[in-house]
Amino acid sequence: MGKHIVSVLVENQAGVLSKVSGLFSRRGFNIDSLAVGETENPEFSRITIVVDSDIRTVDQVVKQLSKLIQVKIVKLLDSDENVSRELALIKVKASPKNRSEIIEIVDIFRAKIIDVSKEALTVEITGTSSKVEALLNMLKEFEMIEIARTGIIALDRGAENISDSKR
Questions:
Q1: 89: CATH
Q2: Domain check: are 109 and 58 in the same one?
Q3: What's the whole-number mean pLDDT along residues 67-76?
Q4: Which of 28, 68, 95, 136 holds its CA 20 to 30 A away from the CA of 6?
């Protein structure tokens, strides 16, 4: 078992995400994260899916995804050959007493304070999932009011485009 990132280039049309995610659910997969966005070509979207499973089972799902008509390319990203990031927004209860301590922690992680109120600070962090987790662990001693995470997005390293891959 391990985390695997599957990058799927699909036609940018209604219902495709449902078909792709449905394939995972029918096989009993729990998707750890799923992110979708338009690519450099507005006719296509990229779906980035992170699953925790053995490689053999993931390979089977990749083959099944390749058979869907709206799927142009499916690629299992090699963990050493990709760049991945996650975005998180974290709302933390902040009093005048602990506000400066929270700001120091946020600065150490090169995160940003994007909203300030009398009772709370909203923090934005972008980075690897481990960086996001580390900041969340540091902020545990303060009351976290709300957290929103995008899930992982990833691309292969180098100049190759996923559309250069074989289907």
A1: 3.30.70.1150
A2: no
A3: 92
A4: 136
Contact criterion met (CB below 8 Å) for 96 and 88: no
Cα(95)–Cα(63) distance, integer angstroms:
53
Residue environment code for 129-148, b if the CB has 16+ CB neighbours within 10 A, otherwise e: bebbeebbeebeebeeeeee
Within a domain: 105: yes
Contact indicator for 133, 124 with CB cutoff of 8 Å: no
Q: Which of 83, 100, 82 is nearest to 92 (CA)?
A: 100
Check pLDDT > 80 for residue 6: yes
The mean pLDDT value for 2-30 works out to 89
CA atoms of 109 and 105, how far apart (whole Å): 7
Rounded distance between C-alpha atoms, residue 102 and residue 29, angstroms: 37
User: Any idea which of 24-28, 32-36, 62-66, 144-148 has the lowest mean pLDDT?
Assistant: 24-28
**Do residues 158 and 71 make contact, with C-beta atoms less than 8 angstroms apart?**
no
**Residue 113 is encoded by which pair of tokens?**
């304070």
Grade residue 167 by pLDDT with cuts at 50, 70 and 90.
very low
Q: 85: closest CA among 74, 93, 77?
A: 77
